[in-house]
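Exam prep: given the inputs below (a chain plus 4'-deoxy-4'-aminopyridoxal-5'-phosphate), describe the expected output before reading on.
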Amino acid sequence: QTGLDFLKYRADFPILDRIVADEKPLAFLDNAASSQRPQAVIDVMSDCYQRYYANVHRGIHTLSEESTDRYEQARRGVASFINAAESHEVIFTAGTTAAINTVARSWGDANVKAGDTILLTIAEHHANIVPWHQLAERTGCKIEFLPLDENYTISDEVVADHLQRLRPKMFAFTAASNTLGVEFPVQRWTSMAHEYGCRVLVDAAQAAPHQTLDVQTLDVDFLAFSGHKTCGPTGIGVLYGKSELLDAMPPFLSGGGMINEVTTSGFTCAALPDKFEAGTPPIVEAIGLHAATEYLTSVGLDAIHAYEKELGSYADRGLRQIDGVRIIGPEPDLKAGIVSFVIKGVHAHDMSQTLDAYGIAVRAGHHCTMPLHKSLGLSASTRASFYFYNTFEEADRLIAAVAEIRKRFAPSGRKRRPRNI
Ligand code: PMP
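Solution:
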């Protein structure tokens, strides 16, 4: 079993040794919300604070130069992680949310007008919906959503039909759904959109941590991901954009660091990437994210993806056996290591709280995908999300605990009145 090879990586994550909830070993299955980080990342960040931290791009003194070097080295490292053609195509942001907001504001305001269409899928995280709603409020453009089929996925035919009928200006979709686990075919959909002159933004928050991404092969126009789900720190994320697009876009946030010259009557912008990095950037976080990408590369993204699929499928199949369980997502083969479910008679919050008493950390609620939940007739679900440091034994614990809880809460399958959440 591939899992055996992965056991050794657990030692890199001190937090995984935690004992929680009355002497239970922690089973951390909430990785889609945020992953844990290895000691190597923690060490690199504390080394920066202890030895060479200073603000970047400003001071002409040793520490500032060292920090600047490491910050720019981080940009080159992250560029190579996603195979960007040029390092200035990598903009450090506060996270996926900030990256998508940057595109919706900067590219959107400059390129979208009343009557234009932005195409999304119904499976999007709020971070890839609300910025477009705001763009619609500002410009009068329309937002259209691709629906899911009965297999919780979307066929190429449906995508082609929407592209052809709606002629959207932008197709913004997630590479992997944080609720369904389903993975969408980024390269294929991007090339289909480009045939209609439509730009593509890919939300890679749930893909960058788990699979190899090559932005040149995928040919996406924009791509966003977060450090904290990718074994890196919070407070940092990446906006990748093709340089000709970023070059033509106006800055989003403004202030120090993003200018060439400021006078009492105006300003001129700095070149990429500084144009999009106003203010003091997340310096130590960028250095930490770089260490995280190196760590993941050394483990191997393809191997991580294969292992998580195996582990996710295993958990999925086990949970499906439990009476009353409905899995919210496609057949195991079509998705990665995310398993969301509802159980007749057990509210997701009760499930999550009770699993905590077993030492198992999962997420309950709408997972910032309210339109998706609504389209499925649900208000909440329970989500177990796996990473390469999780084990088959943890999946077994989850399955056994869910079966026990199901019996305890709904012995006769009787439906309890749902709590308002
Ligand atoms: N998109 C997806 C698919 C996500 O899962 C998340 C985080 N749950 C986000 C966007 C937002 O990421 P962040 O909160 O790091 O900005």
